[in-house]
């Protein structure tokens, strides 16, 4: 029997009816079934997933290897089990609720063979408004550098891996991690790879957000997320020597996994759990957050982490409560230095160092916007627009050498105008043309983070606004306790979409373009009926 080009690994746990579309997308790949091996591991499913795998295996016996096992608690075990029987030159991992574009594997294998790549990323798009960061897919990159690119923030395992690389270095998933186990696996593969390539010319992978949102990543708890963050940071520290390369990877871990532990929903937790998170994050910051990493974080993230390290739990709660309920504090300008006047700043009873609150080296502080108004309107040109009124805590932008703030919903820029300023801040009006948001969205729909930047619009920074606080240079626009307008329904050709605004638990504002398909409308109606009993 000839060696297949690709072994497709599919870990499965209770993903019907999405699993059927996933499997159909695999057997219909244009690369040809004779070049594929599909290894599906049923991890103790209790719905019809196991039977569906057996149905496909009976129909395509030469293609499918199906393994049934007791539930292991996460995808790491099933993925490792599949790697034991994979025989392809390459391995590709597919979530059992996701699916591939028809020509995905042919293109990925051709690129790997042409460039001699050990890892190939194809563009991933979100379905049902699942958010996928797109900065890594700005253009094709035959030879991508792990440390001088957005790759450290895009370490999901939805990539093509050369199996020889995985076997040579014994790269496997850590089975003690119930969630997030794909990150250490992918990071080590990319770290060991001779060449990494990116393909942005096609929709390769469709990452689906389930209507029920019941997979273990969505349902994971804060303490488990803390343990996951600790494991990931420890893995990075062990894999990569101290210095610029390690910092480049750890920056994204602090701006992603660690920062999310201190988002606004921290206030909703019981005090015992708050204390555990405060202690855990404070320890991570003290042990691993270098000055260079801190300089790369957004001002808001850096302040919360510094207070977690240097202050007690009440200090941290006061800072988060300020952001979540009242918006950004005022800014003190003193001897050429800038300080965010959060609770605890120069409070003699708290004894927090000024360095916790200094934002002098963070131009993104001027772009810190709190939305105070949000509505759909008709502008003077007769266009339907989403109008956002927002406020920055900096009264004099020119004092920072700035003449403007740019706002975008990722790659879609808004029109921004200054309404006025006073001694405590500057108010701006932000307008997004509704038709432009819809036109820039595929039929699968999309959620976009609304972010702001100091200075001119930069699409790369906008696409990289990854957390409630954002990486340095771009800040997610916040909307504390803001009333959201009713969705706006728009038509583009034969397609109808709903334009909606959401505020996540992190406090960040997002704009969603949701396709009004019969399935989507039906799911929405069912949710309403369930709530009504």
How does this structure look, described?
This protein is α+β, with helices and mostly antiparallel strands and 533 residues long. 32% of the residues lie in helices and 24% in strands. It is built from 16 helices and 23 strands. Helix 6 (182-192) packs parallel to helix 8, helix 8 runs parallel beside helix 10 and helix 12 (299-310) runs antiparallel to helix 13 (313-326). The termini are far apart. Mean pLDDT is 89; it is low at 213-220 and 466-472.
Show the helix and strand layout.
Blueprint: E1 6-12, H1 18-27, E2 36-43, H2 49-59, E3 64-69, H3 76-85, E4 90-93, E5 99-100, H4 104-115, E6 119-122, E7 124-127, E8 160-162, H5 163-168, H6 182-192, E9 196-199, E10 205-208, H7 216-219, H8 222-239, H9 244-258, H10 271-288, H11 291-296, H12 299-310, H13 313-326, E11 331-334, E12 337-340, E13 370-378, E14 384-392, E15 405-409, E16 412-413, E17 415-421, E18 426-433, H14 434-439, E19 446-454, H15 459-463, E20 475-476, E21 488-492, E22 495-503, E23 509-515, H16 518-531
Parallel strand pairs: 1-2, 1-4, 2-3, 6-9, 7-10
Antiparallel strand pairs: 4-8, 5-10, 6-8, 11-12, 13-14, 14-18, 15-16, 15-19, 17-18, 19-20, 19-23, 21-22, 22-23
Helix pairs in contact: 6-8, 8-9, 8-10, 10-12, 12-13
């Amino acid at each position: 029997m000839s060696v297949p080009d690709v072994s497709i690994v599919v870990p499965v746990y209770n993903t019907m009816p999405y699993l059927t579309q996933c499997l159909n997308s695999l057997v219909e790949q244009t690369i040809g079934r004779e070049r594929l091996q599909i290894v599906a591991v049923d991890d103790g499913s209790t719905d019809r997933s196991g039977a569906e795998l057996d149905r496909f295996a009976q129909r395509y016996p030469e293609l499918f290897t199906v393994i049934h096992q007791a539930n292991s608690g996460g995808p790491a075990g099933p993925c490792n089990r599949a790697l034991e029987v994979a025989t392809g030159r390459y391995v590709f991992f597919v979530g059992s609720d996701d699916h591939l574009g028809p020509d995905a594997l042919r293109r990925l294998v051709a690129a790997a063979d042409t460039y001699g790549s050990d890892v190939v990323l194809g563009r991933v798009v979100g379905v049902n408004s699942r958010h996928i960061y797109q900065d890594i897919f700005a253009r094709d990159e035959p030879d991508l550098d792990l440390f001088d690119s957005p790759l450290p923030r895009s370490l999901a395992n939805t990539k093509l891996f050369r199996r020889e690389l995985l076997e040579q270095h014994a790269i496997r998933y850590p089975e003690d991690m119930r969630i997030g186990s794909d990150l250490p696996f992918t990071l080590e593969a990319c770290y060991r790879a001779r060449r990494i390539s990116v393909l942005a010319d096609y929709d390769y992978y469709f990452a689906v957000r389930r209507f029920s949102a019941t997979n273990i990543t969505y349902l994971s708890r804060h303490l488990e997320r803390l343990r996951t963050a600790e494991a990931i940071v420890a893995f990075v520290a062990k894999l990569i020597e101290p210095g610029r390369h390690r910092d480049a990877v750890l920056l994204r871990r602090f701006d992603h996994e660690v920062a999310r532990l201190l988002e606004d929903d921290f206030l909703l937790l019981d005090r015992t759990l708050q204390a555990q998170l405060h202690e855990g994050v404070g320890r991570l910051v003290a042990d691993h957050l270098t000055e260079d990493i801190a300089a790369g974080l957004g001002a808001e993230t850096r302040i919360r982490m510094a207070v977690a390290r240097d202050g007690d739990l009440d200090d941290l709660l006061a800072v988060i409560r300020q952001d979540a309920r009242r918006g950004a504090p005022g800014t003190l300008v003193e001897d050429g230095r800038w300080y965010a006047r959060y609770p605890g700043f120069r409070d003699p009873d708290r004894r927090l160092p000024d360095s916790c609150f200094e934002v002098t080296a963070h131009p993104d502080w001027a772009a810190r916007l709190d939305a105070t108004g949000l509505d759909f309107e008709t502008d003077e040109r007769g266009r339907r627009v989403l109008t956002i009124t927002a406020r920055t805590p900096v009264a004099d932008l020119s004092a920072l050498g700035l003449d403007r703030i740019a706002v975008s919903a990722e790659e879609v820029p808004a029109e921004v105008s200054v309404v006025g300023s006073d001694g405590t801040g500057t108010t701006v009006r932000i307008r997004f043309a509704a038709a432009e948001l819809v036109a820039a969205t595929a039929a699968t729909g999309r959620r976009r983070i609304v972010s702001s930047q100091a200075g001119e619009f930069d699409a790369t920074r906008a696409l990289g606004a990854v957390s409630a606080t954002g990486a340095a240079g771009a800040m997610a626009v916040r909307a504390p306790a803001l009333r959201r307008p009713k969705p706006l329904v728009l038509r583009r050709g034969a397609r109808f979409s709903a334009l909606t605004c959401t505020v996540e638990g992190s406090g960040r504002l997002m704009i969603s373009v949701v396709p009004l398909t019969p399935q989507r409308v039906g799911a929405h109606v069912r949710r309403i009926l369930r709530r009504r009993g």
